[in-house]
Design goal:
Elements: H1 11-23, E1 26-27, H2 28-34, H3 42-55, E2 58-63, E3 66-71, H4 75-91, H5 95-105, H6 110-126
Helix pairs in contact: 2-3
Length: 127
């Protein structure tokens, strides 16, 4: 049975997208060359780029014999989608539950605490 397509990026896909978001456009060879260690084989990058295109994250156009890939989805939009997926799967679409979990896991910085306090005060003033 075929594996269900993930609406979010896998770790391998995210590595390639980071390169494309930085470069804005690149061939498979250019993406492979720009990846941080560990390196990936050309064919692995090519296969992953095709998957990203099927998922709607990138598009390509031909430049001679090479395919040049460009991101269709920007980093912030991909992050928003991933957070939405996480909210739906694990937190019943309740963003406050996710926020509480995050704050419980790691103490916020003083600046972050001040922003959180300001938000809480604003919500309390709104009723």
């Amino acid at each position: 049975m075929a594996r269900k397509k993930s609406p979010t990026l896998t770790e391998a896909e995210l590595r390639l997208m980071e390169v494309l978001w930085r470069k804005r456009r690149a061939t498979v060879a250019e993406v492979a060359e720009a990846l941080p260690p560990p390196p990936l084989a050309y064919n692995t990058v090519l296969t992953t780029m095709r998957i990203l295109e099927q998922k709607g994250y990138v598009q390509h156009h031909e430049d001679g014999r090479a395919y040049v890939y460009e991101p269709v989805v920007e980093r912030d939009d991909a992050a928003k989608s991933a957070v939405g997926y996480l909210l739906q799967r694990f937190f019943g679409n309740k963003s406050a539950a996710l926020a509480l979990r995050l704050v419980e896991e790691e103490r916020p910085s003083d600046d972050e605490l001040a922003r959180l306090k300001a938000l809480i005060e604003r919500y309390e003033d709104q009723g």
